[in-house]
Amino acid sequence: MKTLIVEDNSVQRAHVERLLRERVPQALPLSAVDDGAQAVVRARQELPELLVLDMQLPGANGIEVARAVWKERPDTRIVFWSQFKDEIYVRRLAQIVPPETVYGYVLKSSPDEKLVQAVRAVLCDEQCWLDREVRGVQVRALQSPSALTEAEYEALIDIALGLTDRGVARRRYLSRRGAQNRLHSLYMKLGVEREEEPGSMFSPRNRAVFEGLRRGLVNTDVLAAENAALERWIEENPE
Whole-model pTM? Predict the structure, then answer.
């Protein structure tokens, strides 16, 4: 079998290499790269059976790398090894995992044994392995009553980027009333008071963004990418 380690921190990269050599000989031979874009190239060249993949990387983040790799070879097994358990990563991962693909998700704060267990489960036993904390986030992101629909998530992104009701309506090709209904649905899922409620002391837009940040539905990396997409859309759709 062959494993590609994708990690930009040299100390952590060396640690994973050493751990796999000592504890999971089935993962050998190993190669490593420190850039997401280069990881896609190397995966295409080397055809590894397993990637141990960080989430935040220069060049392309872990979700982007996984999407590109799975698009060409959907049977490639991936263990995400990250310090982040943000709901946005769990949400986006669920959107790109091919049917019947085996993958894992381990937090860097977990003991080494957890990473070893995940690699063995994914590589040797062909079973998915999720850190318990990540599994809890997954339930909240995808199955709980507070889980956002894609439309509600788009509304959160739009107001986080500063769009007005009119701006949301124009970007999402909705009527103004349709945009407002979408926002009200978002506020209910996040437990945010609406302005028209008697005694409300919060701006619902600002409070919704705060709740999104607290839940890990948005972060600076996601907003930077979404802002770039919004700027491209504005250029392509002048008033």
Answer: 0.79
- According to the 3-state scheme, what is the secondary structure of the chain? CCEEEECCCHHHHHHHHHHHHHHCHHHCCEEEECCHHHHHHHHHHHCCCEEEECCCCCCCCHHHHHHHHHHHCCCCEEEEEECCCCHHHHHHHHHHCCCCCCEEEEECCCCHHHHHHHHHHHHHCCCCEECHHHHHHHHHHHCCCCCCCHHHHHHHHHHHCCCCHHHHHHHHCCCHHHHHHHHHHHHHHHCCCCCCCCCCCCCHHHHHHHHHHHHCCCCHHHHHHHHHHHHHHHHHCCC
What is the tens place of the pLDDT at every residue in 121-161? 999 999 999 888 888 877 777 777 888 888 999 999 999 99
Calculate the alpha carbon distances from 112 to 17, 21, 79, 142, 164 in Å.
12, 13, 14, 28, 47
Residue that wins the pLDDT comparison between 57 and 86? 57
